Amino acid sequence: MTTPSICVTCGTQYSAVAGVPDRCAVCGDERQYVGLDGQEWTTLEGLRRGHRNGFDEVGEGVLSIHAQPKFGIGQRCLLVKSPEGNVLWDCISLLDGETVERVRAWGGIAAIAISHPHYYSTMAEWSEAFGAPVLIHEADKEWVMRDVPRLECWTGETRQLNSAMTLIRCGGHFEGAQVMHDASRRALFAGDVIQVVPDRRWVSFMRSYPNYIPLAPAAVRKIVDAVDPFEFDDIYGAWPKFEVRGDAKGAVRRSAERYLRALRDPEPEVSSC
Known about the structure:
Elements: E1 6-7, H1 25-28, E2 41-42, H2 44-50, E3 52-59, E4 62-68, E5 77-80, E6 87-89, H3 97-105, E7 111-113, H4 123-130, E8 134-137, E9 151-154, E10 158-160, E11 165-169, E12 178-182, E13 187-191, E14 195-196, E15 203-204, E16 206-208, E17 213-214, H5 217-227, E18 234-237, E19 243-245, H6 248-264
């Protein structure tokens, strides 16, 4: 039986039915890219031989999990504790025995919610290992490259996960891009739909980060309007240590204003000599 292939550049796992694909459809899209050395593939077993996951508790009941050394895009996933069942926010490609044991020791996973297609990775493996449904927005279903029996594609603008956690469709980066609000923590789990930047007082918004394609003003305003009804002090971003701590809602508003001003204002005139 053919082993499912994983794209080395973006970490997406493909169905094994058709064998090794010629090209990764996710990387072929303008928001991503084929690696500088060309299309390369690995498998989950190959990934396990050269990588392991790191674990860091980055907030009360929030466990960050990320591959070491970096693999693919390099994002982390976040296991968020809840008395109604833990939620895995976003996903990474590496899943091994140690990770399964650590996650089970934390109470397992009741649901998996993924911000956008760049982080779908090995979501089928995670779903099977923990018997958890995977929730994505219907608008991004076309980017699912391997069958997930417990896949739940939701529609509309919000989806309640439990009494404290809500998925919010923001769009922008992808049509169905979503963030997760946790009322109990007054926190927003944003992936890079709302991207925390190195100056962690600010965030940004892009159609493509690696290819530097900005978002149109209407898309930025839609993101801000989507999260505005929710109260949050912190934002957990896509990368380890990329978090806004305190006044995160203000940071989103200020950052959007700065972004839109940069798009709107003309270049300063340069005087001739």
